[in-house]
Structure formats: C-alpha cells, structure tokens
DNA sequence: GGTTGAACCCTACGCGGCGGGAGGTCGTAG
DNA sequence: CTACGACCTCCCGCCGCGTAGGGTTCAACC
C-alpha cells in the first residue's frame, strides 16, 4: 500500500483523513483506518472503487447491498473464468499444431490466425450461441466426413469466385445455403442436415486446430470467398 | 472493429495503410488486410499490442518467437485463472457466512473484511507460501482445538495490550512466539507445535469463514494487538 | 452548378487505478 | 545552522481504444 493510493482515494472522495495537522499533514483516525481496511479487503476481492464507495456509504441504509454486490462479483468472476478457459483451449490447440508436424511452421500458424479472425467475424453471435448450446451433444465419428464436406464446399466456392460467377446465380445461392448449414444456420431437417450441423459444431468447438488442419487454403482466397458469400446472401 | 482502432494502430505504428488516395483517405492493400487479421486474432488471444508488433515484425527473423509468446501467454492465463479461483473461494465463504446465521449481519461481514485486510498484511509472503504448500496435508479434527488456541491466544494478547505491558516484557516475547507458531512460523517440534501449525493452515485456508467465526473481536482492537506484536517482535 | 447525406480525416479529452517525478514545506536530530 | 527524511500539491504517463467536435471528400440527385 503506497501513499499515492491514499492520495487517490482522497481525490475521488472514497476515503479522506478526517483531520489534518496545522501544517496540512493528513491525520487518519481510527475510524478512517477501519474504513481503509474495508476498502482494501473489497479491492482484494476485485471490486471497483466506485462499487466500494457505493456499498460502504449505503450499507447503513440497505444491509442487503453488500451481499448483492458480492454475488454480482461472483457472477463476473465466473464469467471471466470461463472466458479464460476458452482462450487457454485455443492457445493449447495452436501450440499443438505448432509442435507436432515436423517442427513449427510459422506460415501455417499465421494462416490459422488469419482464418480465426475471418471466421470470428463471419459467424454471427446468434450462430455461435447455438453452437455453444449443443456443443456437448456430439460424438466424434462425423468429424472426418465433416472435414470432407467443408473441403468440398470451399473448393467449389473458390472455383465459383475465380471463374467470376455473379452472386445472383443459382449456384451461388445453393452454395450459400450449404455454407449456412455447415455454419450452424437453418438447414432443412433430415439426417444430412444433422450431420452437417454436427460438423460445424465440432469445427467451431476447437476452431484453431480444425480450421488449421482441414482448411489449408490461403487466407486471402478465403476472405474473397466470404465476401462473395456475403454478397450472394444479400442478393437473396 | 471500429475505425478508431485502425487509427490507433496507425498512431502506434502497428499497422498503417500502405497507400493513400490523393485526398488523404487510407487505402488498405491485401497485405495490410492480412496483417490486420493476424493482429485481430492475436488480440483475441489476449496479447498486448506491443507483443503483437514484436512477434509480427520479428517473426521472419526468429520463427520460434511466435511459439514462445503463445506459451508465455498460456502461462499468464493459468496464473490468472488460479487467482480468480482463489477469489471465488473467498467470496463464496463470505456469502456462506452472510447467508446462514439468522439472516445476514452486515457488521459482522464488515468486521470479517477488516480482519482479512489486517491478516493479509500481517502474514508475510513466506509464511503464506509455506501454508499453501502443506495445505492439503491436514484433516479436520484439529479445527475446534485450533479455534480454542487462537481464541485463548488473542484474549491473552488483548489483555496484555490493554494493561499496558511493555513490548520488551518476557510475556510479550512468549506471546509473539506462540502467535508466530499459529501463523505458520517456526515453532518447536512436538505434537503441540504440529497441532497449532495445522490450526493456522486450516484457518488461512478459507480465512473469511474461520476468521469471522473464531475471532469475534472488534477490528480496531485486533489492529492494536497486531501493532503491539510487531513492536514486540522487533524488540527481540 | 448547387445541395445533401454519408463517409472519411485529424485533434483532443476521457476512462481506472494508480506510478513516478518535480519542486516546495515540515519535523527532528546533530 | 544544516542535513535528511517525510510529507504536501500538481501534473504527466500508462493501455486500448470510445466519444465528441469540427473540417474535408465523395457520389448521387436536382
């Protein structure tokens, strides 16, 4: 604990010494000290200074506020922990990819990174939520078939992009539909639809690994494809 | 992704459009875009912009830097996750205390908070490490005895403080020794020493609950005692 | 040609929680 | 009297942008 923090608490009105010496030096009374202990303890639990001020000044009026704040903080910590878990998964996937096949391949790692970014912006928030919901309901047998489906679809799409088929073409619309299905969108029911959705779930689940392995196309071509699909989608 | 972020990347030299129109508008080339994808992906993994700049500009020279950075980031995330786990434990303990005994008692909660702060500063880093090491080697039978030991010791210490015994007194030195033993310091061997150390470990383990239950003394008196012990310790 | 609205530009201030430094005053000991 | 530390106020800095303000440019329409 440094004096600078005390000055700061004074500045924002959270805790100021209730007395001063004639020379202007701060004199913290016993009550100030008790308040300081509370502030420090709540800070150590991760609360913001504003929240601390709120609960310390309003605790007399509303004895539940303290518990509410702690519960809220617990919720935030849970959320935060989950996010960290996801990040750890992704990084571990990347490190596995970097470590296994004949030493590390920075270009491939970079391509994976670019694809992560492209896919992150391509999938809508809603789609990702749906994928997360049903994530666990999936076995591992459809994965190879899924890779094949993705690969075929992307190859076909890239051919369309390069031969310059306009986005209003019927083949483009069909491609969009199948792409959406793989991406977890609204596909007609039936076994094939389920298989493709499952593939998309699995693929998103640990996306870095799967995207890196199963989609070895240059990122700029992928970006072009995504742009093309977006235009085709808007064209109906 | 907003334009403001792009301006920012430009400002700090992380990513700038390599062309401009005659009117001054930024023109991002395909290569710029690929670099942007990489930046975004690495940001999403939690790396700082400075680190990203380092690895993107030095990746050609040193192909291992990328992997090192990811490994480093994984380590940091692990650390962070552990810290969050500790905080969650503490808050859960506080909420349990607030919820069980006949509704919540904000004063008691506050007292617990103050004590947490006092103890946090009182225990040295070394002591806490030692406690963490042997934390799991403890059963649950010594807890009640431990509470009694703490209670008796603190009562005795508070009496000494209030009757004004000087810190150089032999009784004060004895108190410091026993206090240190409870706090995980160096106590003479034997069954009693082990029991007191075990009590200290258990007490620190979920400190909020135990401190709140077993030490129902006002925080300012505890603070006075801690100060007194500190002086006695320094007096040898 | 004029006008309009969207898109782009630059500049500057703001956040949270202090760290760190400059430059001055106060307290105490030799 | 001097020295040294502790304390004071004021101000700039960090990170990763968000937000606001005021000025240009672009494409389209009248």
Account of the protein in words:
Chains A, B: Keywords: DNA-binding. With 236 residues, chain A is mostly helical. Chain A folds into two domains: 1-104, Multidrug-efflux Transporter Regulator, Chain: A, Domain 2 (Orthogonal Bundle); 105-234, no CATH class. Chain A is 72% helix and 2% strand. Chain A has helices spanning 3-11, 30-44, 49-58, 65-100, 106-122, 125-133, 143-163, 170-182, 191-205, 207-214, 219-234; strands at residues 19-20, 26-27. A two-stranded antiparallel sheet of chain A has the order 1-2. In chain A, α2 packs across α3 (49-58), α5 packs across α10 and α7 (143-163) crosses α9 (191-205). The longest helix of chain A has 36 residues, at 65-100. The radius of gyration of chain A is 27 Å and the shape is elongated. The model of chain A is unreliable at 122-144 and 184-216 (pLDDT under 50). The interface between A and B is large, with 51 and 51 residues. The structure holds a DNA duplex (30 and 30 nucleotides).
Features:
homodimer; 236 residues; 2 domains; two-stranded antiparallel ribbon; 72% helix; DNA-binding; DNA binding (chains A, B); DNA-binding transcriptional regulator, MerR family (chains A, B)
Please outline the helices and strands.
Two copies of one chain form a homodimer.
Chain A: H1 3-11, E1 19-20, E2 26-27, H2 30-44, H3 49-58, H4 65-100, H5 106-122, H6 125-133, H7 143-163, H8 170-182, H9 191-205, H10 207-214, H11 219-234
Antiparallel strand pairs in A: 1-2
The structure holds a DNA duplex (30 and 30 nucleotides).
